[in-house]
Amino acid sequence: MTNLQENLTALSADLATFERKIQHLAKEMTIDLSDYEIDHLALRVNSEQNAKNWLILLLKCGKILSDNIVNGRKIYLVKLEKPIKFAHQFVDVIELPFPKNKQYPVEGWEHIEVVMPFLPNESINEWVQRINMRFLWSELTQLIIKVSETKVDGERLPNPSIAVSFVDKTSNHTCIKVHPYSIKKILEV
């Protein structure tokens, strides 16, 4: 096992640009990423072959944490042996979804997922409403907000997400997704 920065030249070279774009999006969202756990970083690829190539490279730096079918496609979560520094945190999980039928405008780093926990006895709807009221993202015309809940066989905790990205993706295609639980917590239950 080796270090991501040493072995994944294309990915690590793009990481600094991705981090700048994520910080810009976070600023528009009025969130300070240091206040929340960055759960994992995610890649997007358009071809099965590119996904296989990235998986081979990622497995030189870590091991498969999960390889579930989510919304009809295989998604790998790779736990890195050595975490990478991103937005003043150390992140040790990379998500690599295999492609379905969607073509992404940019292949490579695409989104991060951060944890904003449920309050005691809070429902999914109450959580979404609280996050929306706290940040008022839907009031910002430059942002797109998408609320969803993925269903994965075997997962017992609810896994809703609020995805926030720019309306104009020409200069910044990145996305920040908010979840109430870390992916490790979802997988361990």
TrEMBL record:
The alphabetical list of record keywords is:
Coiled coil
> Which Gene3D superfamilies does this UniProt record tie to the protein?
2,3-Dihydroxybiphenyl 1,2-Dioxygenase, domain 1
Signal peptide from the UniProt entry: none
What is the superkingdom listed in this entry's lineage? Answer: Bacteria
Q: Which CDD domains match?
A: VOC_EcYecM_like
Pfam families recorded:
YecM (PF06185)
Q: Coiled-coil intervals in this record?
A: 1-28
GO CC annotation: cytosol
Q: Return the protein name.
A: VOC family protein
The opening ranks of the lineage are: Bacteria, Pseudomonadati, Pseudomonadota, Gammaproteobacteria, Pasteurellales
